[in-house]
Amino acid sequence: MKNIFTMVLAGGKGERLNPLTAQRAKPAVPFGGKYRIIDFTLSNCLNSGLRKVAVLIQYKSHSLDRHIRAGWNILSADLDEYIASVPPQQRISEDWYRGTADAVYQNMFLIDDEHPEFLLILAGDHIYKMNYAEMYHWLIATSADAVVGAIDIPIQEASRFGVIAVNEDYRITRFDEKPANPISLPNDPDHAFASMGIYLFRTKVIREYLLADAKEGSAHDFGKNIIPKMIADKRVYAFKFQDANKKAVKYWRDIGTLDAYWEANMDLVSVDPQFNFYDAEWPIRTYQGQFPPAKFVFAQDFQGGRMGV
Q1: Which domain holds residue 249?
Q2: Which CATH number is 42's domain given?
Q3: Relative orientation angle of helices 62-71 and 38-47, to the nearest 10 degrees
Q4: How far is CA 219 from CA 174, 231, 249, in A?
Q5: Cβ–Cβ contacts within 10 Å for residue 56, how many?
Q6: Whole-Å CA distances, 22 to 13, 29, 30, 142
Q7: Per-residue confidence in pLDDT tens, the chain, 309 aa
Q8: What angle do CA 31, 32, 34 make, to 5 degrees?
């Protein structure tokens, strides 16, 4: 996967998660007891063989930046491998990122430095397991210019997401951002294809669209602007989510609200949890603090037994 450069979008405010995001960015919010939300996307990158990853940070970024430097500085600089946080550079203007596409556009210099054949764009605030190499193989097999990660969801939930309409070959024919009347899947009126916020592009193609989108009058958003325009004259395909979680039901969670955050944490507490942290073939990494080992000591006589410390 040396010809793929990865950008993780991690600069959103996460206002619907207040007060959890009062002092930190949404991707830095703790999850599952010991992890941060961004650990799942970065673990997917590592497990997929991606070795050039730029995390685009912005709002309240200190906690997130510190976590990435302390917990993810694990690749070989001698081999030109890295997972690095990138703050706003203001190389093009004095504006903050105006949208997801603008965040990538303002960091075009990173892409130019690497000269990748493909550009992978990921969200840093979702909980899931996915081998991005499979998405790359699908792009090659379909001769696509771009591929959008998609998951089938109940039609009644689809209005909260970007909804993808496809033909029989999974070529995208329409992309609607949070539509009031979402389009169902072919031959399945009860489900729709929702965008996962995962995009794989041929670099020379996306560069053209980012330059055009930088003009005023755009929301500078992949879902609202880039993908709908690209569908008209390029080969854009949906990639049906292949879950590395190895459960009967596919697991992907957008924990953008407090209720969704609580429900996702509750998915972890059963004897056989919906989301599996314990798969040695797909490890989830995080920063590990340096603490002494646990020990057992005698309790006070009136307490009886032993207790752990």
Answers
A1: 4-308
A2: 3.90.550.10
A3: 30
A4: 18, 17, 35
A5: 24
A6: 9, 10, 13, 44
A7: 789 999 999 988 888 999 999 999 999 999 998 999 999 999 999 999 999 999 999 999 999 999 999 999 999 999 999 999 999 988 787 788 889 999 999 999 999 999 999 999 999 999 999 999 999 999 999 999 999 999 999 999 899 899 999 998 999 999 998 899 999 888 888 999 999 999 999 999 999 999 999 887 788 999 889 999 999 999 999 999 999 998 888 999 999 899 999 999 999 998 899 999 999 999 999 998 888 888 877 766 555 555 555
A8: 85
- Identify residue 171 by its one-letter amino acid code: R
**Nearest-angstrom CA–CA distance, 174 and 159:** 15
Quote the number of domains for the chain. Answer: 1
Q: Which amino acid is at 197?
A: G
Alpha-carbon distance of 298 to 101, in angstroms, equals: 59
Q: Which residues pair with 153 in a beta bridge?
A: 192
